[in-house]
Amino acid sequence: MLAPLDHIDAWIFDLDNTLYPASTDLFGLIDQRMGLYVQRLLGVGPEEARTIQKQLFREHGTTLSGLMRHHDIDPHEFLAFVHDIEMDAIDEDRRLVEAVAKLPGRKLIFTNGDVPYANRVLERLGLSKSFEAIHDIHACAYQPKPHAASYESMVAAFGIDPATSLFVEDMARNLRPAKAIGITTVWVNNGSELGNYDADMSFIDYEIHDVGQWLHEITGDME
To answer: Could you say which of 101, 102, 111, 125 is the most buried, measured as most Cβ atoms within 10 Å of its Cβ?
Structure first.
């Protein structure tokens, strides 16, 4: 373990476009389902629906939060609809599985998605038994990353110490609140949509491009 990280005892990972490559474009399928949901909800065409969806995402952190605030939708219904996708594009990643297994301490998932969806993704990756728990949008009381309350709820739920925790995430703006409470931050700069939005290296401790490769490097097992 590299000296700067030998104090870490809680490893926290985002899910989408972090534990699998952004090129998989799984979120692209979810994005299409979100657009369709907005079309049906508001009775608008595809282009207007996309404009509304992206505005809600930028202003509220997730499309779901925006729709809940402005249209009082059922979050469970929404998540079931948008996550009804095929996951054939994701394959088991033995390199990542082995690297995560070698990390000392606790391992958690922190996602703006929900537990059922996260479990499907983790199973496809071969990581279904690799993490202690998943802190999802329901557990955050629908205050998604990057709302400070979501990080506070995650820290409180698992009794972790921010000073000895590390958070890996592809959305740079989602690292700012983590850094603010003392969590070591890792930005996966992999070209995901809006991934570098609000990026500022002052709140990013490490910039990487591939989680599996980086984990192998820091555990000293890079071939």
So the answer is: 111
